[in-house]
Design goal:
The complex is a heterodimer of chains A (74) and B (931). By secondary structure, chain A is of the alpha+beta class. Chain A is built from two helices and four strands, in the order βββαβα. A four-stranded antiparallel β-sheet of chain A has the order 2-3-1-4, with no helix packed on it. Chain B has a five-stranded parallel β-sheet with strand order 2-3-4-1-5, sandwiched between helices. In chain B, strand 6 and strand 7 form a beta hairpin. The chains are: A alpha+beta (74), B mainly alpha (931). At the A-B interface, helix 1 of A face helix 14 and helix 18 of B.
């Protein structure tokens, strides 16, 4: 499923692997958006736990419900 | 975990000099202990103001440091400070058994030996339910003479519902002299709202823990000696938002810099996540060898010099670690001697990521070196973790194989399953021993679905050795058979269980570890019991009870206890049997108390078989009310759990009791249920035969000799045992005894005394030869009656006298008085001749008091009820207790049933009386003269 997580503060690219391989886009307003595919809810919670452990502040979280098209994509 | 590592988990950290004192927060923490402010002379009385202190904030807010400071503060500020116990948690502690083992170990630092009873429950697996352990522990905690505080640090690593539930239980039943402190990055799933509203909770959260400007000033300029201006401090404070870890890293970054101002400006101007930015800064400042050291050791959960040497290839790790500690580079000491350290989690995560980026191809090697060191130092469990992380599955499997029995013996099923699940199927398949333990772990953990699959995998792997299997494959076959037997018991399939028990015992060796031994020993006992070697059976049962001295998966213990008691009853040792059953009762009570009436299936079965055996024993002792309670309860539980063998016995015993209580209809109804059970469910043939024999016995007691005769005719046409061996089996003896003594009774009732004696005498011989004095007494009673029928009174009295002298020490009552008027006469004669007078008089008195049923039915007692659907006896009982003002819980306790059962009865009562409230029910019942 596609996930979109907005956090406070910028992160360098090198954290991408640590956070489930999500792509990191630092935003002008000082937040960062991590987005990409995660296999399931368990994986998502895993990423969130790691964010928690690193002291990241969560701003918003959006996960897409897989549609037939997106499922076919995977 | 070794003693060495254990102490690192229990170590109370010391104050770090560079950290700032936070008196305002200390004062808040104090309110958890004492309502007023804490003065020097304040003794904390034997109870604390509140139960729980929660320090909940993300990583790096200084939770541990704060609590540490608080401990120090209390120790210096008070003349008599509470004792402190500390437990630092990590992910591996998610195994419930492990968690509570450590918890107990922590509390034992306050009072040695306080957890001994609870620990004993873990001595041999399977492990008891957590609540059982906790209840035992709490009982012991209550007696600790000092007040004490238990700190659980890093509770957020715990994600097992079982642990959360158990901890909730602990909090709910917290002894008054105990206070619990939990430090966590997330709010733990405990009943916080409830505690909050009751004023039982002290909370410190991120907002509380952020550094104020003053605290930042103190930290940066005094502790870190940076000499910054207040504007600079304010800027840093704003940028880090008072986040302690951020400030620490900022301080580290600024050390040795000429111009702090530039740094702060750049830092403030960046949006970069604080830790990432600053940690990068700090790392960039490190000389190469330190930088590499940090990266390489990042994979370690815990650091000690020799381990670091192994992983980095250096020889001076000792010096480096000390250097890092001095430099405050997030290295936390775990003991007094500075042998063990760990990285502050924030920093560790950062380092791990850094490692992954910097030298990804070294990661596997690093795990291997760590695993090697742990293995060489006999810390196998830790080694397993690293091999799994390094993807070295063969190695992991070998290590797991080494430690699987010990892990199993400690009851750490979660850990075991976690490891095994991480291994690829192919690897498990190549190690049948692991498959078997996998199956066992699943059985014990109650996950029965995939067990057979793993057993088959294990079987396939046993080499077909033909005539001479190796010791290893014998042991394996034994274990597989034992698993199947155990599983069969759960499924109530006695014949299957017996067969596999036999196979298992063929290969059992003393080297197999205690849990398996306890199961197999019990299974063997079961087999021997059917094979007439009762001495061996008795010994094996005692052994298995010792081995399985646990609560919880009490099934084995209860089965052993019940079967032992049965043997003892057959041997005529009623008092011994009672003691044995009392032990079972204790186990049941311990379970029930804790689970609050929500027992799992095993507990149901265990309780029902203890109750039925006890009920029947009490019937013999003429304690009829108690007997009824137990038997009714046994039937209720048995019906819920549905194990047909146990339930059949319960019905038989209950029917017998009802007959004695003057409820012949009830007795008939109950036997009908037994009959139906035998038809509908899969029961062993001998169970069917038992039911039929007891049905016949009931007919005889109720004067329905034609029906009994029909049974007799059919019975004698039943197939004889196939061969001498089968004939010799004990089960055959027991069945034979039941059937033939019933037949003898029938003959006596039919006045065919010669026939009766023809049956009794040989049977009596076998009984006496085998030491079955319980059976012998009954046969002697029948013999006396038959002889009296032949008018051979002198002989009859001789025989009876023998029976009486055997029976007296064990308190037999009903075995005599159930025989009605003929026995009354004989006893009166015996008394007249001055034989065994005391006992005989007691029996005679019991005759007068009890309403024995003669040869025929008495009509049911006249009823004043004009209800279409009359209340049952039980419902009347409940109604009486309601009228007496008892609550549901009290009624449940009085009647030895579950609260839900009481509620069911009450609903039925309301329905039948057409009311909706207790008061209405009582009023209506009085109207109808039911009360």
């Amino acid at each position: 499923m596609h996930c979109n997580i907005q956090i406070k503060g910028h992160l360098s690219d090198q954290w991408s692997d640590w956070f489930g391989g999500l792509a990191i886009e630092n935003q002008p307003d000082g937040s960062a958006v991590l987005s990409g595919q995660l296999p399931d809810q368990a994986a998502l919670y895993g990423v969130l736990d790691r964010m928690r452990d690193l002291g990241v502040t969560l701003l918003s979280l959006n996960c897409g419900i897989p549609t037939p098209e997106t499922q076919a994509e995977r | 975990m070794t003693a060495l590592l254990l102490k690192t988990k229990l170590y109370i950290p010391h104050i770090r000099p560079e950290l700032v004192s936070r008196p305002r927060l200390i004062a808040q923490l104090d309110t958890g202990l004492c309502s007023g402010s804490l003065g020097e002379d304040d003794l904390i009385q034997d109870h604390f103001a509140r139960k729980l202190t929660l320090v909940s904030a993300p990583a790096g807010f200084g939770k541990t440091a704060l609590i540490t400071e608080w401990v120090q503060h209390l120790r210096t500020a008070l003349k008599v400070a509470p004792s402190f116990a500390w437990l630092s948690l990590d992910e591996d502690d998610n195994d419930p058994v492990r968690f509570f083992t450590y918890l107990i170990a922590a509390i034992e630092t306050v009072q040695a030996g306080v957890g001994a009873n609870a620990q004993a429950l873990y001595q041999s697996p399977p492990s008891p339910p957590l609540k059982t352990v906790l209840t035992v522990l709490i009982n012991d905690l209550v007696s600790i003479p000092v007040s004490f505080v238990l700190v659980l640090d890093d509770y957020h690593v715990i994600n097992q519902a079982a642990i959360h539930e158990a901890l909730t239980f602990l909090v709910d039943h917290l002894p008054p002299q105990m206070h619990l402190v939990i430090a966590s990055r997330t709010d733990p799933p405990l009943p916080l709202a409830r505690l909050r509203t009751r004023g039982q909770l002290t909370e410190l959260r991120a907002a509380d823990l952020r550094f104020t400007l003053d605290e930042s000033l103190t930290f940066l300029n005094e502790a870190m000696a940076l000499g910054l201006s207040s504007e600079h401090v304010a800027a840093l404070g704003a940028r880090t938002e008072g986040w302690v870890a951020g400030l620490q890293l900022a301080a580290l970054s600024m050390r040795g810099r000429a111009d702090a101002g530039d740094f702060i400006a750049a830092f403030s101007g960046s949006h970069h996540h604080v830790i990432d930015y600053l940690a990068e800064e700090v790392m960039a400042q490190q000389p190469k060898d330190i930088h590499d050291f940090l990266c390489q050791t990042a994979i370690l959960n815990r650091l000690t010099a020799p381990l670091c040497d192994a992983v980095t290839g250096r020889t001076d790790s000792d010096a480096i670690l000390r250097q890092l500690e001095q430099a405050n580079l997030f290295l936390v000491p775990l003991d007094e001697q500075r042998e063990w350290y760990r990285y502050h989690r924030l920093f560790a995560d950062f380092l791990r990521n850094h490692l992954q980026q910097d030298m990804p191809d070294r990661v596997r090697d690093l795990h291997c070196w760590a695993a090697e060191w742990y293995e060489q130092n006999d810390l196998v469990a830790e080694a397993v973790g690293h091999t799994l992380e390094g993807g070295e599955f063969e190695w992991a499997a070998r290590l797991i194989d080494q430690t699987v029995e010990a892990t199993f013996a400690r009851g750490e099923m979660s850990t075991l399953l976690h490891w095994l699940r991480a291994l690829p199927d192919a690897i498990i398949r190549s190690r049948p021993r692991l498959s078997v333990f996998y199956a066992w772990a699943m059985i014990v953990a109650g996950e029965l679905d995939d067990v057979e699959v793993h057993l088959q995998i294990a079987e396939r792997a046993i080499p077909a050795d033909g005539d001479s299997p190796t010791a290893a494959s014998k042991s394996l076959s034994s274990q597989i058979a034992a698993s199947r037997a155990y599983l069969a018991i759960f499924q109530g399939d006695v014949p299957r269980a017996t067969e596999f028990a036999r196979r298992a015992s063929e290969h059992l060796s003393r080297d197999d570890h205690p849990f398996l031994q306890s199961i197999i020993t019990w299974l063997m006992g079961f087999t021997q019991y059917f094979n007439e070697d009762t001495v061996a059976a008795g010994q094996l049962f005692s052994e298995s009870i010792e081995l399985s001295q646990v609560v919880g998966n009490t099934l084995i213990a209860m089965l052993s206890l019940t079967t032992s008691s049965f043997l003892q009853i057959m041997q005529g040792h009623l008092r011994q049997a009672h003691k044995t059953l009392q032990r079972g009762l204790e186990l049941v009570r311990a379970d029930d108390q804790l689970s609050g009436g929500e027992q799992d299936g095993q507990a149901f079965l265990g309780a029902s078989i203890i109750y039925e055996a006890l009920g029947d024993l009490l019937r013999e002792w003429n304690r009829l009310e108690d007997a009824e309670r137990y038997l009714v309860q046994s039937v209720e539980l048995g019906e819920q759990w549905g194990n047909p063998e146990a339930l059949a016995d319960a019905y038989i015993f209950l029917a017998r009791l009802k007959q004695v209580l003057g409820d012949p209809q009830g007795a008939r109804d109950t036997m009908r249920k037994a009959d139906q059970l035998a038809r509908e469910k899969k029961v062993a043939l001998w169970t069917v035969q038992q039911i039929e024999a007891h049905q016949a016995r009931l007919w005889i007691a109720q004067g329905n000799l034609e029906a009994a005769e029909r049974w007799a005719a059919l019975r004698t046409q039943a197939p004889e045992p196939k061969d001498a061996e089968e004939k010799g089996r004990l089960i055959h003896f027991f069945l034979r005894w039941t059937e033939e003594s019933t037949l003898a009774r029938l003959r006596i009732a039919q006045h065919k005394f010669d026939d009766a004696l023809g049956l009794i005498v040989p049977l009596l011989q076998v009984a006496e030869d085998g030491g079955w004095m319980g059976i012998a007494i009954e046969l002697l009673v029948l013999q006396a009656l038959a002889l009296q029928g032949q008018n051979k009174t002198a002989q009859a009295l001789n025989v009876l006298q023998r029976a009486l002298s055997l029976a007296e020490p064990e308190g037999y009552v009903r075995i005599f008085i159930d025989e009605g008027p003929p026995m009354l006469t004989l006893l009166q004669e015996t008394a007249a001749r001055g034989i065994v007078t005391g006992y005989v008089n007691k029996l005679l008195a019991a005759f007068n008091v009890s309403e024995y049923e003669g040869a025929s039915d008495t009509p049911p007692p006249p009823s004043d009820q004009s209800l279409i659907d009359p209340l049952s006896e039980r419902e009347l009982e409940v109604l009486q207790l309601i009228a007496a003002g008892l609550s549901n819980r009290e009624i449940a306790e009085r009647l030895v049933v579950a609260v839900s059962t009481v509620k069911t009865h009450i609903n039925n009562i309301y329905r039948k009386l057409d009311v909706s409230k207790r008061t209405q029910a009582v009023a209506r019942a009085r109207e109808m003269e039911l009360l």
